[in-house]
Amino acid sequence: MIKIKTPLDEKTVASLRAGDFVEISGDIYGARDAAHKKFIEILKNNENLPFDIKGQIIYYVGPSPTPPGFIVGSCGPTTSSRMDRYTVRLLACGLKGMLGKGIRSKQVKNAIVRYGAIYFVTYGGCGAYLSQFIKKWEAIAFFDLGPEAVYKIKVEKFPAVVGIDSKGNDVYSF
User: What is the tens place of the pLDDT at every residue in 117-174?
Assistant: First the structure.
Protein backbone atom coordinates (compact mmCIF):
# COMPACT_ATOMS: atom_id res chain seq x y z
CA MET A 1 0.00 0.00 0.00
CA ILE A 2 1.49 3.33 -1.09
CA LYS A 3 0.71 6.27 1.16
CA ILE A 4 0.20 9.60 -0.60
CA LYS A 5 -0.64 13.07 0.65
CA THR A 6 -2.46 15.91 -1.02
CA PRO A 7 -2.00 18.18 -2.79
CA LEU A 8 -0.26 16.01 -5.36
CA ASP A 9 3.15 16.97 -6.70
CA GLU A 10 4.72 15.94 -9.99
CA LYS A 11 7.19 13.56 -8.33
CA THR A 12 4.43 11.61 -6.56
CA VAL A 13 2.27 11.42 -9.68
CA ALA A 14 5.22 10.25 -11.82
CA SER A 15 6.11 7.52 -9.31
CA LEU A 16 2.70 5.82 -9.36
CA ARG A 17 1.83 3.01 -11.76
CA ALA A 18 -1.49 1.62 -12.94
CA GLY A 19 -2.57 -1.09 -10.51
CA ASP A 20 -0.81 0.39 -7.47
CA PHE A 21 -2.88 0.31 -4.28
CA VAL A 22 -2.78 3.65 -2.49
CA GLU A 23 -4.03 5.33 0.67
CA ILE A 24 -4.81 9.02 0.17
CA SER A 25 -4.58 11.43 3.11
CA GLY A 26 -5.24 15.17 3.13
CA ASP A 27 -7.80 17.42 1.48
CA ILE A 28 -9.60 16.41 -1.71
CA TYR A 29 -12.60 18.00 -3.39
CA GLY A 30 -15.93 16.38 -4.18
CA ALA A 31 -17.78 17.39 -7.35
CA ARG A 32 -20.09 15.75 -9.88
CA ASP A 33 -21.66 16.56 -13.24
CA ALA A 34 -23.56 19.75 -12.38
CA ALA A 35 -20.58 21.26 -10.56
CA HIS A 36 -18.25 20.39 -13.44
CA LYS A 37 -20.59 22.14 -15.86
CA LYS A 38 -20.41 25.25 -13.66
CA PHE A 39 -16.60 24.98 -13.48
CA ILE A 40 -16.41 25.21 -17.27
CA GLU A 41 -18.80 28.18 -17.37
CA ILE A 42 -16.65 29.96 -14.78
CA LEU A 43 -13.49 29.30 -16.79
CA LYS A 44 -15.14 30.52 -20.01
CA ASN A 45 -15.92 33.79 -18.19
CA ASN A 46 -12.27 34.08 -17.05
CA GLU A 47 -13.35 33.90 -13.41
CA ASN A 48 -11.78 31.96 -10.53
CA LEU A 49 -12.95 28.49 -9.57
CA PRO A 50 -14.24 28.11 -5.99
CA PHE A 51 -10.94 26.49 -4.94
CA ASP A 52 -7.37 26.46 -6.24
CA ILE A 53 -7.41 23.42 -8.53
CA LYS A 54 -3.62 23.15 -8.94
CA GLY A 55 -2.32 19.84 -7.59
CA GLN A 56 -5.73 18.78 -6.32
CA ILE A 57 -7.80 15.60 -6.55
CA ILE A 58 -11.49 15.79 -7.45
CA TYR A 59 -13.58 12.90 -6.12
CA TYR A 60 -16.62 12.20 -8.28
CA VAL A 61 -19.05 11.77 -5.39
CA GLY A 62 -22.51 12.75 -4.25
CA PRO A 63 -23.32 11.85 -0.65
CA SER A 64 -26.48 10.40 0.77
CA PRO A 65 -28.02 12.22 3.77
CA THR A 66 -25.85 12.28 6.89
CA PRO A 67 -27.18 10.11 9.72
CA PRO A 68 -27.13 11.62 13.24
CA GLY A 69 -23.68 11.35 14.81
CA PHE A 70 -21.85 10.85 11.51
CA ILE A 71 -19.60 13.17 9.48
CA VAL A 72 -21.23 12.18 6.19
CA GLY A 73 -23.60 9.57 4.84
CA SER A 74 -22.74 6.94 2.29
CA CYS A 75 -20.39 8.49 -0.25
CA GLY A 76 -19.20 6.14 -2.94
CA PRO A 77 -17.83 7.08 -6.35
CA THR A 78 -19.96 7.89 -9.35
CA THR A 79 -19.18 6.88 -12.93
CA SER A 80 -16.20 8.96 -14.03
CA SER A 81 -16.93 8.99 -17.75
CA ARG A 82 -19.82 11.38 -17.05
CA MET A 83 -17.18 14.05 -16.31
CA ASP A 84 -15.06 13.33 -19.41
CA ARG A 85 -16.42 16.25 -21.44
CA TYR A 86 -15.16 18.66 -18.74
CA THR A 87 -11.97 16.93 -17.62
CA VAL A 88 -9.45 17.98 -20.28
CA ARG A 89 -10.04 21.68 -19.53
CA LEU A 90 -9.62 21.12 -15.78
CA LEU A 91 -6.40 19.17 -16.31
CA ALA A 92 -5.10 22.06 -18.41
CA CYS A 93 -5.80 24.33 -15.40
CA GLY A 94 -3.62 22.20 -13.09
CA LEU A 95 -5.90 19.45 -11.75
CA LYS A 96 -3.58 16.53 -10.92
CA GLY A 97 -5.90 13.75 -9.85
CA MET A 98 -9.37 12.36 -10.27
CA LEU A 99 -11.04 9.71 -8.13
CA GLY A 100 -14.07 7.74 -9.28
CA LYS A 101 -15.01 4.46 -10.91
CA GLY A 102 -15.00 3.06 -14.42
CA ILE A 103 -13.27 3.67 -17.72
CA ARG A 104 -12.23 7.04 -19.17
CA SER A 105 -12.32 8.29 -22.75
CA LYS A 106 -9.32 8.30 -25.04
CA GLN A 107 -9.29 12.12 -24.87
CA VAL A 108 -9.04 12.03 -21.07
CA LYS A 109 -6.34 9.34 -21.16
CA ASN A 110 -4.32 11.46 -23.61
CA ALA A 111 -4.79 14.55 -21.41
CA ILE A 112 -3.67 12.63 -18.31
CA VAL A 113 -0.39 11.91 -20.12
CA ARG A 114 -0.08 15.43 -21.58
CA TYR A 115 -0.60 17.17 -18.22
CA GLY A 116 1.16 14.62 -15.98
CA ALA A 117 -1.94 13.71 -14.01
CA ILE A 118 -3.43 10.53 -12.57
CA TYR A 119 -6.78 8.78 -12.30
CA PHE A 120 -7.62 6.81 -9.17
CA VAL A 121 -10.48 4.33 -8.89
CA THR A 122 -12.17 3.21 -5.72
CA TYR A 123 -14.77 0.70 -4.73
CA GLY A 124 -18.21 1.19 -6.26
CA GLY A 125 -21.15 0.06 -4.13
CA CYS A 126 -19.19 0.57 -0.92
CA GLY A 127 -20.15 4.14 -0.01
CA ALA A 128 -20.89 3.33 3.63
CA TYR A 129 -17.48 1.64 3.94
CA LEU A 130 -15.67 4.54 2.26
CA SER A 131 -17.28 7.10 4.59
CA GLN A 132 -15.17 5.81 7.49
CA PHE A 133 -12.06 7.30 5.83
CA ILE A 134 -13.59 10.78 5.78
CA LYS A 135 -12.66 12.98 8.73
CA LYS A 136 -14.28 16.24 7.62
CA TRP A 137 -16.93 17.07 5.00
CA GLU A 138 -17.79 20.67 4.15
CA ALA A 139 -19.81 22.16 1.30
CA ILE A 140 -17.83 25.10 -0.12
CA ALA A 141 -19.61 26.12 -3.35
CA PHE A 142 -22.74 25.75 -5.47
CA PHE A 143 -24.92 25.08 -2.42
CA ASP A 144 -28.02 25.25 -4.63
CA LEU A 145 -26.96 21.92 -6.18
CA GLY A 146 -27.66 20.01 -2.96
CA PRO A 147 -25.72 16.73 -2.97
CA GLU A 148 -23.98 17.85 -6.17
CA ALA A 149 -22.44 20.90 -4.47
CA VAL A 150 -18.65 21.20 -4.26
CA TYR A 151 -17.20 19.72 -1.08
CA LYS A 152 -13.87 20.06 0.67
CA ILE A 153 -13.19 16.63 2.13
CA LYS A 154 -10.47 15.68 4.60
CA VAL A 155 -9.57 12.02 4.11
CA GLU A 156 -7.27 9.73 6.02
CA LYS A 157 -5.92 6.55 4.41
CA PHE A 158 -8.67 6.62 1.77
CA PRO A 159 -8.28 3.40 -0.28
CA ALA A 160 -7.88 3.60 -4.04
CA VAL A 161 -6.13 1.98 -6.99
CA VAL A 162 -4.23 3.83 -9.70
CA GLY A 163 -6.56 3.37 -12.66
CA ILE A 164 -4.58 5.37 -15.24
CA ASP A 165 -1.04 6.49 -14.53
CA SER A 166 0.78 9.51 -15.94
CA LYS A 167 2.28 7.34 -18.72
CA GLY A 168 -1.19 6.30 -19.94
CA ASN A 169 -1.17 2.75 -18.57
CA ASP A 170 -4.76 1.76 -17.80
CA VAL A 171 -5.99 -1.00 -15.49
CA TYR A 172 -9.06 -1.36 -17.67
CA SER A 173 -6.92 -2.40 -20.65
CA PHE A 174 -4.49 -4.85 -19.01
Answer: 999 999 888 899 999 999 999 999 999 999 899 999 999 999 999 999 999 999 998 6
DSSP reduced 3-state for 26: strand
Question: What is the per-residue pLDDT across 32-82, written as a single tens digit (0 to 9) for each?
Answer: 999 999 999 999 999 999 999 999 999 999 888 888 998 998 999 999 999
Tell me, yes or no, whether 173 lies in a domain.
Answer: no
Using an 8 Å Cβ cutoff, are 134 and 72 in contact? yes
Residue 52 lies in a domain: yes
Q: What is the CATH number of the domain that holds 40?
A: 3.20.130.10
Give which of 62, 36, 33 is closest to 50, Cα–Cα: 36
Catalytic annotation, residues: 36
Would residue 174 count as lying in a domain? Answer: no
What is the Cα–Cα distance from 38 to 83, expressed in whole angstroms?
Answer: 12
Which domain range does residue 97 map to? 2-166
Cβ atoms of 80 and 124 within 8 Å: the answer is no
Query: What does the alpha-carbon distance between residue 79 and residue 60 come to, in Å, rounded to a whole number?
Result: 8
CA distance 148 to 23: 25
